[in-house]
Amino acid sequence: MIRVLLVDDQPLIRSGFRALLDVEDDIEVVAEAGDGREGVALAREHLPDVALVDIQMPGVDGIEATRHIAADPALAPVHVVILTNYGLDEYVFEALRAGAAGFLVKDILPEDFLHAVRVAARGDALLAPSITRKLIDQYVTHPPATRRDTALRELTHRERDAVALVAHGLSNDEIADRMVISPLTAKTHVNRAMTKLHARDRAQLVVLAYETGLVTPGSS
């Protein structure tokens, strides 16, 4: 059973998402919160698999709530998915940097919404390759100041190559084709890189790859 926490300051929005989720046999809404502070408290209380968090809320917003959840080791199993009205707006990249696993636009089709919740709960491909490419297109033209990260030195050459390809939006199968290795080996490289870089998921790898200068805008 997939346990979901809804965090949104608009009761009508929460009700709509709950109505979609409650009819699914494999999904259970365990709690609802009207702001980020309450959302973090309920995440600690219920330890959901997925926290759907609105990005803009009064008081503690979605970015700050995500930051609190990502910083708490006890909440490591919680995958935060940001909800936004505007798609790839200026706040989404900051939310990913704070530790969000991905994001959904609120006008998403119901079937796509349910699929995304299940994908997030599995903990794999939390940012679909197409979304990763859009993220890159939107933000790498104005990247944050490059920082040096000594953790990159711990990566093998193959792991660095795999991270760079993740940052370009490739799936594990596409990475395998590019590196001429098996999909399982590609997944192993990515997972080991996430462990060494203390990245929660692929979204974090994308952010780290650009922030550390491992890849640069326009590179391929």
UniProtKB/TrEMBL annotation:
User: Where is the PTM 4-aspartylphosphate found along the chain?
Assistant: 54
Q: Is-annotated flag, keyword S-adenosyl-L-methionine? A: no
Q: Where is the Response regulatory domain?
A: 3-121
Q: Mind telling me which InterPro entries this protein's record contains? A: CheY-like_superfamily (IPR011006), NreC/VraR/RcsB-like_REC (IPR058245), Sig_transdc_resp-reg_C-effctor (IPR016032), Sig_transdc_resp-reg_receiver (IPR001789), Tscrpt_reg_LuxR_C (IPR000792), WalR-like (IPR039420)
| Alphabetical keyword list | DNA-binding, Phosphoprotein, Transcription, Transcription regulation
* Biological process according to GO: phosphorelay signal transduction system; regulation of DNA-templated transcription
Q: Which SMART domains match?
A: HTH_LUXR, REC
Pfam families according to UniProt: GerE, Response_reg
Highest taxon listed in the record's lineage? Bacteria
Q: Which GO terms describe its molecular function?
A: DNA binding
Describe the location of the HTH luxR-type domain by residue ranges. 148-213
Task: Kindly give the Gene3D superfamilies that the UniProt entry links to this protein.
Answer: 3.40.50.2300
Question: Cross-referenced PROSITE patterns, in alphabetical order?
Answer: HTH_LUXR_2, RESPONSE_REGULATORY
State the protein's name: LuxR family two component transcriptional regulator
Q: Tell me what organism the protein belongs to.
A: Actinomycetospora cinnamomea
